[in-house]
């Protein structure tokens, strides 16, 4: 019996050591990756020498300083992903694009940011940034590759530098100085005149940017075509971008099925939202830098041979990466303490992964934090207010969280814990890296224990509020 016990202890110790080494390996690789990117950003966007005191170089240095600060802020806040699986997946077609167009890979820096805003950017100097929030809006890797080709074209044509030069010339032109002097000396309506001048100036600058977009589409398509990718998917990319401002989650979210419990039923009153008298409105973006995507798609279509055959296919690997991005965006919401968004993302993921125990555990931990902030009357620090500008499902989630009383937060936690007790499976995704990311933000064992104690105090005759945590990594 003692021998068996000793063997079990040795096996347990070996497994624990293996998990610890794996987690430590992830941590080390993540830090090295972040330092590597930081070093490249500082080198590429460093201060330009200006021995001749050229005012444009001073202006350009200010622009580069702003760019540096943005990228370093992403790095310092942990929003640049170190997820090797998704980086390799996107870097593979990007490297192929470069090779097919005789561009050196070492001249370019690809950065993936855990930002839900669906966009990609070129910072000049070979730096291309892709927000993970853009990836779910496409259906395959070819469409994302067309975006990479577009941003690559911005870089090869030096659009960032040219835009800076155009901007500098406009604000320092004799015409602009004369107009400003005229407005300064006018007796009436000086504010309206200044506003009109700046509006016209903005239109001129954005028309310049729009011409860059069309040029980047055209040259980017040639890059894409040279790499041998499906031509029809270039057009499909721009058509997909036309609806990129709407939510990726289009189906209604049934909060009742997620939050309802036998002992504590869901209340429709939680969904009540009174729209403010002076509500926010979406304004017509006449100064937008991106022209109509349908027009851009039509222009690309003209570049495709008329005998080109349409290709329809499904991309299972891309669908897997989309799911991984959703988890990473959930982690980013936790990292930034945007717990309203994190709870909403949990609910959306639970709709498609109803047996994922980890999601229920995270949702319960979020409710614990929401409870604590509500006690201190600081809920607005971690849960945004509903807004007419938000997508419907997200707005409904925020409304529910703001309408809950302290006791109701505990009751929902109780309901979710009961679900968690019966849903013990994990996603089929490789969750090792993701579990490590979550462990950096939330000590799930400790937090679940705290919420368990809170609920037990309020409902001493009830079963524990939080299910046993099954994550096996070592927490700090």
Low-confidence stretches are 7-24, 282-289, 423-437, 439-445, 454-476
SSE string: HHHEEEHHHHHHHHHHHHHH
Radius of gyration: 26 Å
How many separate helices?
17
Average of pLDDT = 78
Q: Main β-sheet, in a few words?
A: 3 strands, mixed
Number of strands: 3
- Give the amount of beta strand, in percent: under 5%
**Percent range for helical residues?**
55-70%
Structural category: mainly alpha
Strand order of the largest sheet: 1-3-2
Terminal residue distance: 34 Å
Domains (count): 2
**Tell me, what's the shape?**
globular
Task: Note the topology.
Blueprint: H1 2-44, H2 55-76, H3 84-100, E1 109-113, E2 120-124, E3 127-131, H4 141-156, H5 159-171, H6 174-185, H7 190-226, H8 232-241, H9 255-259, H10 293-303, H11 316-335, H12 339-352, H13 357-375, H14 392-403, H15 406-422, H16 432-441, H17 444-458
Parallel strand pairs: 1-3
Antiparallel strand pairs: 2-3
Helix pairs in contact: 1-2, 2-5, 3-4, 4-7, 4-8, 5-7, 6-7, 7-10, 8-10, 11-12, 11-16, 12-13, 12-14, 13-15, 13-17, 15-17
């Amino acid at each position: 019996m003692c021998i068996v016990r000793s063997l079990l202890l040795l096996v347990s110790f070996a497994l624990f050591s293996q998990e610890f080494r794996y987690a430590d390996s992830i941590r080390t690789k993540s830090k090295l990756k972040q330092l590597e990117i930081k070093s490249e950003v500082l080198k590429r966007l460093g201060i330009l020498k200006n021995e001749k005191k050229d005012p444009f170089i001073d202006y350009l240095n200010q622009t580069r300083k702003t760019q540096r600060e943005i990228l370093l802020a992403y790095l310092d806040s942990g929003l640049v992903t170190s997820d090797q699986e998704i980086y390799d997946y996107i870097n593979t077609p990007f490297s192929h694009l470069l090779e097919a167009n005789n561009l050196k890979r070492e001249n370019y820096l690809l950065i993936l940011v855990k930002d839900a805003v669906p966009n990609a950017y070129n910072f000049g100097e070979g730096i291309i940034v892709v927000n993970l929030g853009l990836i779910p809006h496409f259906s395959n890797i070819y469409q994302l590759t067309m975006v990479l080709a577009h941003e690559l074209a911005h870089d090869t044509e030096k659009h960032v530098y040219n835009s800076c030069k155009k901007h500098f010339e406009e604000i320092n032109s004799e015409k602009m100085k004369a107009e400003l002097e005229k407005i300064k000396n006018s007796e009436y309506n000086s504010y309206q005149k200044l506003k009109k001048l700046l509006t016209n100036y903005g239109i001129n600058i954005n028309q310049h940017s729009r011409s860059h977009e069309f040029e980047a589409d055209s040259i980017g398509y040639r890059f894409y075509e040279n790499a041998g990718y499906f031509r029809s998917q270039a057009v499909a990319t721009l058509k997909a971008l036309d609806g990129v401002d709407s939510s990726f989650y289009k189906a209604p979210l049934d909060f009742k099925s997620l939050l309802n419990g036998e002992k504590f039923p869901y209340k429709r009153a939680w969904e009540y939202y009174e729209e403010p008298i002076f509500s926010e409105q979406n304004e017509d973006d006449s100064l937008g830098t991106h022209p109509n995507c349908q027009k851009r798609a039509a222009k690309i279509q003209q570049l495709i041979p008329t005998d080109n055959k349409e290709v329809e296919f499904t991309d299972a690997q891309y669908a897997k990466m989309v799911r991984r991005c959703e988890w990473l965006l959930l982690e980013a919401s936790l990292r930034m303490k945007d717990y309203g968004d994190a709870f909403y993302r949990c609910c959306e993921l639970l709709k498609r992964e109803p047996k994922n125990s980890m999601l229920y555990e995270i949702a319960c931990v979020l409710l614990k934090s929401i409870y604590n902030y509500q006690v201190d009357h600081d809920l607005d620090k971690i849960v945004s207010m509903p807004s007419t500008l938000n997508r419907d499902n997200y707005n409904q989630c925020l409304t529910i969280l703001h309408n809950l009383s302290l006791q109701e937060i505990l009751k929902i936690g109780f309901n979710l814990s009961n679900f968690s007790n019966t849903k013990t499976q994990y996603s089929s995704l490789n969750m090792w890296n993701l579990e490590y990311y979550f462990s950096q933000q939330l000590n799930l064992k400790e937090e679940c224990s705290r919420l368990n104690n809170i609920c037990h105090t309020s409902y001493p005759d009830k079963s524990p509020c939080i299910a046993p945590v099954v994550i096996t990594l070592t927490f700090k």
